[in-house]
Design a protein that fits this description.
By secondary structure, the chain is mainly β. It contains no helices and seven strands.
Length: about 70
């Protein structure tokens, strides 16, 4: 089940998770991309994004972690 987000999304990375962070819609269009370093933390406002399901992906070395989120307004 996807995590439901209403207004903002907070992302934090550990040293083991440093790498490329992307959020894309289900059509594969990247709506956000950022390189994360060790211990990075930031908050994204999702109020300007259309409601729907998005894929959050973290690439660290040869590991890829993907999770679904649901944006609701």
């Amino acid at each position: 089940f996807p995590v439901t987000i209403t207004r903002q999304l907070t992302i934090s990375a550990t040293a083991a998770e440093a790498g490329e962070f992307t959020i894309s819609n289900l059509l594969g269009n990247v709506v956000y991309r950022k390189q994360l370093g060790a211990s990075d933390e930031f908050t994204l406002s999702t109020t300007q994004w259309p409601a729907g399901v998005y894929l959050v992906q973290m690439k660290s070395g040869d590991k890829i972690n993907t999770q679904k989120i649901l944006i609701r307004h």
